[in-house]
Design a protein that fits this description.
Layout lengths: L13 E5 L2 E4 L4 E4 L2 H4 L8 H13 L10 H14 L5 E5 L2 H16 L3 E5 L8 H5 L9 H4 L3 E4 L4 H8 L4 E6 L13 H13 L3 E5 L23 E4 L10 E5 L18 H16 L2 H16 L7 E5 L2 E5 L5 H10 L2 E2 L8 E4 L7 H22 L1
Helix pairs in contact: 2-9, 3-9, 7-8, 10-12, 11-12
Length: about 375
């Protein structure tokens, strides 16, 4: 049976990984500066992670949410302690799309309204309401398009005010650093004014931290760079270091009722063990401090390369923008220099999302390769 052909694939077959490297079926080592879409937060096969997952799967890998699972409460407590998000409630699920789907559903339950406001170049997932709130018509099927969603440009505070004052918006959802869209950010004034408008208009303010959370921005959540308090926070990618896990942080003003949300696999024992291993490692290895130090170093190196026209993002969620499309550059990096990088909706942007324990030597290796690859691409173009 053939696979359903929806992914354009590089001709590389990773079979193992350690730290910031992966190894293919021919034994070739690759520097992983993409982490499988920012999923690998503490490095491949981290000993803490391997030990925790191995121990848990040998005891109890899964049971449904019909029983007590103390690991869920341990995970919730650890998220609260490291994030500083006091008194929120946690609902566990399996992915970022599912987290955003439940976030939007909660907002509609809470407000009794159904329209959503989202933003240009935003990406929130590929399911139902989450994909309807995503600014990509190519992945929105007719069944998704029946959702009531208004998409506005970032920093259009008047547009937000106009839409929210119509009184039918249940939720405004925003990435504080856009991922797939190309690392764009709203201004500080914009985010803080949006938060105030949501409060005035009985609209739930949803922070999509699926990619930007878990220390990637240099703070635990990217929204913490601003003076805002989201009603709902969605989390996923770096949460499990590769194990499928997602979640929703829910403000205490939103009351839980039996049956309003549910999931078969969400918050299972193995997922919680993986999630706890990630948080323990972030704490023990001071990885958020490392994010800030390595981000400064990376940006200082990027500023020495004239072909880089713009540096976007923050922390270790960065984009290098050129005045040419980077498809060939990415191919050269992976095939000739054995370095994984990412692309974005902005075809001129190279996306960098390494594990949070990256070191200067890895950054140096990348920039040496990048300068060589840029020259090759320019020579080919000429």
């Amino acid at each position: 049976m053939p696979m359903f052909d929806v992914y354009p694939l590089y001709d590389v077959t990773p079979v193992s990984g350690k730290g910031i490297h992966v190894y293919d079926d021919k034994g070739m080592e690759y520097l992983d500066l993409y982490g499988g879409h920012a999923v690998i937060s503490i490095g491949h096969a981290h000993p803490n992670y391997v030990e925790a997952v191995t121990k848990q799967v040998s005891e109890l890998g899964f049971y449904s949410n019909a029983i007590q699972n103390p690991l869920q409460q341990q995970l919730a407590n650890k998220i609260e302690a490291l994030s500083g998000c006091k008194d929120y409630q946690l609902f566990l699920c399996n992915s970022g799309a599912e987290a955003n789907e439940n976030a939007l559903k909660l907002a509609s339950f809470k407000t009794g309204k159904k329209r959503v406001v989202a933003f240009t170049n935003g990406f929130h997932g590929r399911t139902s309401a989450a994909v309807a709130a995503t600014d990509n018509k190519n992945i929105i099927a007719p069944i998704n398009a029946q959702q009531a969603v208004t998409i506005l440009p970032l920093n259009d505070i008047q547009g937000v005010k106009t839409e929210l004052e119509k009184g039918d918006v249940c939720a405004l959802i925003v990435e504080f650093i856009q991922g797939v869209g190309g690392l764009d950010q709203g201004s500080k004034d914009f985010f803080e004014q949006v938060f105030a408008l949501c409060k005035l208009n009985n609209t739930m303010f949803i922070a999509d931290e699926v990619q930007s959370g878990y220390g990637r921005s240099g703070k635990f959540f990217a929204f913490q760079h601003y003076n805002v308090t989201p009603d709902i926070v969605s989390i996923a990618k770096g949460m499990g270091n590769g194990f499928p896990i997602g979640g929703v942080l829910i403000h205490p003003d939103i009351e839980a009722k039996y049956g309003m949300l549910g999931t078969t696999f969400g918050g299972n024992h193995l997922a919680c063990a993986a999630g706890l291993a990630v948080l323990n490692t972030i704490e023990e290895e001071n990885l958020m401090d490392n994010v800030n130090a390595m981000s400064d170093y990376f940006i200082s190196k990027a500023n020495t390369i004239s072909e880089i026209k713009n540096i976007k993002g923050r922390g270790l969620m960065l984009g290098l923008e050129f005045d040419f499309e980077v498809g060939d550059l990415r191919k050269d990096l992976i095939y000739n220099h054995h370095i994984f990088t990412g692309g974005a909706a902005n075809k001129k942007l190279l996306r960098i999302l390494p594990p949070l324990n990256i070191e200067k030597q890895h950054i140096n290796q990348f920039f040496e390769a990048l300068e060589t690859a840029i020259k090759k691409v320019e020579q080919t173009a000429n």
